[in-house]
Amino acid sequence: MKQIQWFPGHMAKARRLVEEKLGLVDIVFELLDARIPVSSANPMLGEIIKNKPRLIILNKADLADPKDVADWIGHFRRNGRAAVATNSLTGDPKPEIIREARIALREQLAKDIERGMQERSIRALVVGIPNVGKSQFINRLAGRSATQTGDKPGITKKQQYVRVADELELLDNPGILWPKFDDPNVGMNLALLGSIKDEILPLEEVVQAGIRLLHRDYPGVLEARYSLEHVNPDDFVGTLDAIGRRRGCLIAGHGIDYERVIRLFLYDLRNQKFGCITFEKAPVDGRV
Ligand SMILES: Nc1nc2c(ncn2[C@@H]2O[C@H](COP(=O)(O)OP(=O)(O)OP(=O)(O)O)[C@@H](O)[C@H]2O)c(=O)[nH]1
Ligand SMILES: [Mg+2]
Fold first, then answer.
1. Which-ligand-closest: CA of 132?
2. According to CATH, what is the number of the domain 202-270?
3. What is the mean pLDDT of the chain?
4. pTM exceeds 0.85
5. What is the pLDDT of residue 7?
6. Which CATH number fits domain 9-172: 2.40.50.140, 1.20.1300.10, 3.40.640.10, 3.40.50.300?
7. How far apart are CA 39 and CA 29, in angstroms?
8. Which atom of ligand 1 sits closest to the CA of residue 157?
9. Domain boundary assignment for the chain
10. Residue with CA closest to ligand 1 atom 8
11. Residue of 11, 40, 63, 135 to mutate, ligand 1, most atoms within 8 A of C-beta
């Protein structure tokens, strides 16, 4: 599989922004994409934030397989890591987030009280890959459009504090990717779910990987979505032809409009048209 490449220059800047603000916050909220909790986790985060407490937030949980979301939360908690699942488009995740943040910070908060300090508001740094929903999560908690959001990576350019409750203030950040993916599947997953700009991606390869993944983990969904008899992921062009014919992605006199088929597939994958999907399963911890 081809390696996904991109220029990480602005990502180095994003990392610096996080390092600069660490001293000013109590806790880091690490947003992961609930559909790819491994690929969306920055392997350098531990090194960047050192021993700052961390709360894992599996965002876009509404798009993921509910059983897998529960498995992942169980896995993190059994391994001593604070974790919650959120849908940042609806509902009110605020009470749970504040409760979990207080649990993750209980030692510090207890020390403050011992020292006679008044109960104070918690400050959290919100970090994660581009397009994971950091700004939308903050808006949901704030109950207003305090930050700009959008369905492509790279929307947030500057840090911004947003008070979301008397007891909680959040710092929004630009998305961060890391300079190199050790596992090429990681780059592919991030590309598939929209965390790397489509303009710099080999989209045919990304879509081919997506078709293979869907065929492997969710057999039958491609056939159902595009009214096809049988999809053979090894015949990529044949699959695009079949989808293109079904969907009328044609160029007059020239056959299939492959570019349109590719965009259609990516749109469908990113917008739950194949149902709730999780591409990475939680490890089995040896406990039920
Ligand atoms: N279905 C669903 N969509 C979400 C959720 N959270 C965010 N989104 C959508 O995901 C897209 C990206 O959201 P943003 O909040 O702009 O993402 P971000 O992490 O701030 O992205 P950058 O600023 O580019 O790093 C938007 O279209 C949001 O509406 C969620 O929990 N569920
Ligand atoms: Mg943002």
1. 1
2. 1.10.1580.10
3. 93
4. yes
5. 55
6. 3.40.50.300
7. 17
8. 23
9. 9-172, 202-270
10. 133
11. 135
Closest atom, ligand 1, to C-alpha of 86: 31
User: pLDDT of 197-209, one tens digit each?
Assistant: 998 889 999 999 9
Looking from the CA of residue 59, the nearest atom of ligand 1 is 31
Taking Cα atoms as reference points, which of 83, 189, 77, 182 lies closest to residue 132?
189
Tokens in use for 157?
């350019």
Nearest ligand to residue 139 Cα: 1
pLDDT band at 20 (very low <50, low <70, confident <90, very high): very high
For 245-256, the pLDDT digits (tens) are 999 999 988 899
Give, in order, the Cα–Cα distances in Å from 52 to each of 45, 123, 288.
10, 12, 30
- How far, CA to CA in Å, does 265 sit from each of 94, 99, 244, 282? 34, 39, 10, 26
Tokens of 116: 């006679």
What are 255's strand-pairing partners? 251
What is the pLDDT, as a whole number, of residue 254?
82
Number of alpha carbons in the 13 Å side-chain half-sphere of residue 92: 7
Which ligand minimizes its atom distance to the CA of 59? 1
What single-letter amino acid sits at 72? W
Pocket lining for ligand 1, CB < 6 angstroms: 59-60, 62-63, 87-89, 128, 130-136, 149-151, 153-156, 174-175
Tell me the pLDDT tens digit for each residue of 86-113.
999 999 999 999 999 999 999 999 998 8
pLDDT category at 73 given cuts 50, 70, 90 is: very high
d(CA 241, CA 257): 9
